[in-house]
Amino acid sequence: MKLIKQARETIERYRMLRRGDRVLIALSGGVDSLSLLEVLSELRAELGLWLAIAHLDHQLRPGSAHDAELVRQIAQQHGLPAIIEAQNVPEYINSRHCSPEEGARQVRYRFLERAMRQLGANRIALGHNRDDQVETFLLRLIRGAGPAGLAGMPPVRGPFIRPLITCSRADILAFARQRHLSYCQDPTNRELGPLRNRVRQQLLPLLAGYNPQIRETLWRTQQLLGQLDRDLEALARPLLARATLVTRPGELLLDKQALAEQPDSLKLQTLRAALRQVRGDLRGIEAVHLEALLAEFKRRRSGAQIELPGGWLGVNRGAKFLLTRAAPSAPEPPDSGEYSLRVPGETVLPSLGWRFRTTLDRLDHSAAALRFSEPERRLEIALDYAKIKKPLAVRLRRQGDRFHPLGMQGTKKLQDFFVDEKLPRSERDRTPLLVDRSGIVWVVGWRLDEAYKLEATTRQVLHIRAALLSA
Q1: Measured distance CA(18)–CA(240) in Å, rounded
Q2: Are 442 and 431 contacting, i.e. CB atoms less than 8 angstroms apart?
Q3: Rounded CA gap, 343 and 276, in Å?
């Protein structure tokens, strides 16, 4: 059948499997993972594979326990060992202050790696397909990414393999109909809250009005970018080895002169490779971070530093450049500096102990969007971007600070606001303030200034999510 033939070719092209491999299949119960199970079951004898199943109930929606039971029955029907667990992912998301998608992904991948070790497997097969890749391309294009990010999910990364990555969703659905597969359908996939769902249900159909073959076009573009990234990575590998002066856990020191004659594209790729080497991965690193790192790397000054996601720093030492884990900030004395906020992007401030992530979007005039300006305590806020007198910065309180708390009459001394809100004295000097040239925009975690609230005339919204680095 077409799908089995495509998967076999993909496995061979990317050298995903060898005879005797022990493969753990991540089975959600959806059509993609069930089709993957059928495909690998068909190829099991031919490729000499051992198969097992893993399923995680994220407890993110009603009915998820039913999916777990269906997977248990499927494993029994196929005579395959299975590890099926439930974890309180909503609690994890709240404790880490991350998005539902990111929190679920983190918990799921840790579970799969643990299940792989428990069963003695050496490969984890995921059901991502070509349409997932196209959606990922658009998501990263919207958020900002370089060739590596736009290349999407790699067919092979460590123990993870994606045998259906070149197969379309239409081919997978056709295969499921031919095989009479009964699969779960996640109702949250129809919701328009998550950006990926909006890309799938709104943006792609809109683009198809301009180019009916848009999915194929974006897929080909993605493949070209992937090849470009692999070529640059191959060129950067020896450059990184030549430029590395010191490498130890949490620290990598580079000789800037060793890269002086290289074009910026190779400098950037080498810095990216260095960052991956010292951090272990590039999670959270976006094009804007790499561009800032390159800009500082090219400067001749000494002592300046670039703050990176995850509590890492790029430190300019004149003729050398240091990538290092940021030291935890001392609780005393409170920092009195002012730190620029990257918009859009992520700003990590180890000295303050906070991380800020910002995105720009058009206003959705629904109650769900407008509620982020309500006068209540929260670590996520939305405000009218046009009202900001740039640049935006983060600092701690200063003598005489005043602002107009949202929902209140007139301005108020920040000191009086803290007293009224019963904020402990020990926390008042540590509560970050988002400011512009006019003054306080947001008392982080407490109250937005009235002047920046969303209104019917708002066109561009700045979303800000704050999180403690210790979270």
Answers
A1: 31
A2: no
A3: 24
* Predicted TM-score (pTM) of this structure: 0.63
Q: Taking all residues of the chain, what is their mean pLDDT, rounded to a whole number?
A: 87
Give the pLDDT confidence of 344-383 residue by residue, as tens digits. 888 888 778 888 999 988 765 444 344 444 444 478 899 9
Cα–Cα distance measured from residue 335 to residue 329, given in angstroms and rounded to the nearest whole number: 10
pLDDT digits (tens, 9 = 90+) for 275-315: 999 988 887 788 888 888 999 999 988 878 888 888 889 98
Q: What are phi and psi of 275, to 5 degrees?
A: -65, -40
Show the tokens assigned to 332: 């005393």
Q: Is the separation of the CB atoms in 44 and 73 below 8 Å?
A: no
* Top-tier CATH class for 2-127+162-210: alpha beta
Class of domain 338-468: alpha beta
354 CB-near residues (< 8 Å, 6+ apart): 394, 432, 444, 466, 467, 468, 469
Q: What contacts 295, CB < 8 A, 6 or more positions away? A: none
Q: How far apart are CA 458 and CA 387, in angstroms?
A: 9
**Distance from C-alpha of 347 to C-alpha of 340, rounded to nearest angstrom:** 8
- The span from the CA of 65 to the CA of 45, in Å, is 32
Judge if the upstream peptide bond of residue 331 is cis by omega within 30 degrees of 0. Answer: no
Residue keyed to tokens 């509560």? 431
Which of 36-45, 173-182, 320-329, 340-349 is least confident?
Answer: 320-329
For the domain made up of 239-325, the CATH class stated in words is alpha beta
Name the DSSP letter for residue 82: E
Beta bridge pairs of residue 83? 54
Cα–Cα distance for residue pair 406/365, rounded to 1 Å: 19
The closest of 420, 417, 409, 407 to 374, measured between CA atoms, is 407
Name which of 139-148, 197-206, 398-407, 459-468 the model is least confident about.
139-148
In whole angstroms, what is the distance from residue 465 CA to residue 379 CA? 6
The answer to whether 449 touches 404, Cβ cutoff 8 Å, is yes
Select the highest-mean-pLDDT range: 138-147, 168-177, 338-347, 366-375: 168-177
List the chain domain ranges.
Answer: 2-127+162-210, 239-325, 338-468
